[in-house]
Amino acid sequence: MQTQITPAELKQLITEGRCHLVDVREPVEHAEEHISAARLIPLGELEKRASELPKDKSLVIHCKSGKRGTKAQEKLKQLGFDQVQNLEGGIEAWKAAGLPVASADKKVFPLMQQVQLTIGTGVLTGAALSLTVHPYWVFLSAFFGAGLMLAGSTGWCGLAILLSKMPWNRVSGQSCGSAKNCSA
């Protein structure tokens, strides 16, 4: 079995009902746009929710561009799933092929944009308060700067993890899962 599948091949499998499509992006991304037949299981939850997937049916994984899909494919093969393919180019290739996408009624800023807005607000607030109230407010700006340096050097973003747990980032009662990397 080939490891990659094209959008046209996937469309055919969906039409014939011969595959189970899994979207491994985060709930906010899925709500923004998704392939109607896709079931959402974020990459960070894949191992603990693998029992929800059929082992006797072909699985097709998709993400935004293919990188997370490849990681999911490797995880599922380690868990004993033999028939796993990754949508080549992810949902971006699906859309480029002119195939339809659906979206949820609920619109939320992408997680990275939420992180940027929060950090920008914190830095601006710290600077304004340090000029008008007390010079020690500059440490608020320093706190957000240190957080950016930590996220940039380690790939771990505590603010993204915190924001992913917020109620507005929940879709159908699920949280965004582990936002390990700010640039996910």
Descriptive tags:
184 residues; alpha/beta; Oxidized Rhodanese, domain 1; 5-stranded parallel beta sheet; 8 helices; disordered C terminus; membrane
Can you describe what's shown?
There is one protein chain. The chain is α/β, with parallel strands linked by helices and 184 residues long. The protein folds into two domains: 4-96, 3-Layer(aba) Sandwich (Oxidized Rhodanese, domain 1); 111-169. The chain is built from eight helices and five strands, in the order E-H-E-H-E-H-E-H-E-H-H-H-H. It has a five-stranded parallel beta sheet. The longest helix is centred in the middle third of the chain and has 22 residues, at 111-132. The relative contact order is 0.16. The chain crosses the membrane at residues 115-137, 143-163. It comes from Prosthecobacter fusiformis. GO terms for molecular function: transferase activity.
How does the SSE layout of this entry go?
Blueprint: E1 4-5, H1 7-16, E2 20-23, H2 27-32, E3 39-40, H3 46-49, E4 59-62, H4 67-78, E5 84-87, H5 90-96, H6 111-132, H7 138-154, H8 158-164
Helix pairs in contact: 6-7, 6-8
Question: CATH topology of the largest domain, which one?
Answer: Oxidized Rhodanese, domain 1
Q: State the assembly state of the protein chains.
A: single chain
Number of helices: 8
The general outline is: elongated
Unreliable runs, pLDDT <50, ≥5 residues?
Answer: 173-184
Q: Please count the beta strands (DSSP E, at least 2 residues each).
A: 5
Mean pLDDT over all positions: 87
Given helix and strand content, the structural type is alpha/beta
Named at the architecture level, the CATH assignment of the largest domain is 3-Layer(aba) Sandwich
Transmembrane segments: 115-137, 143-163
Keywords: Membrane, Transferase, Transmembrane, Transmembrane helix
Domain Rhodanese: 15-103
Pfam family, one: Rhodanese
